Prior knowledge:
Elements: H1 3-18, E1 22-26, E2 30-35, E3 43-49, E4 52-58, H2 66-75
Antiparallel strand pairs: 1-2, 2-3, 3-4
Amino acid sequence: MNTITFNQQLSDKLNKELNPELFSTPGKGEITVVANEKKDLREYRIITKDNKVVDVVDAYDADHDAAYQKMMDFLKNYR
C-alpha cells in the first residue's frame, strides 16, 4: 500500500475514533490532527513512513488531555 492510501485509511479510522474532540486530515508523509473548537489550540502531526507511525509532534506543546491519550492509545497499533 502506498503512503497516501495508508494515510487516508488511518485518517478515516482516526476520525471515527476521535470525533467530536479531534479531526484529522491526511497528507503525504503525515496526518494533521486538530481540535474541533476554534478556541482550542491543539494540533498534532502524525508522521508516517513505510505504512507505520514513526512520530507524533505536538505543534503547540499543549497540555495533553483525554482526547490526546485516546489518540495515542489508538496509534499504538500502527507503530
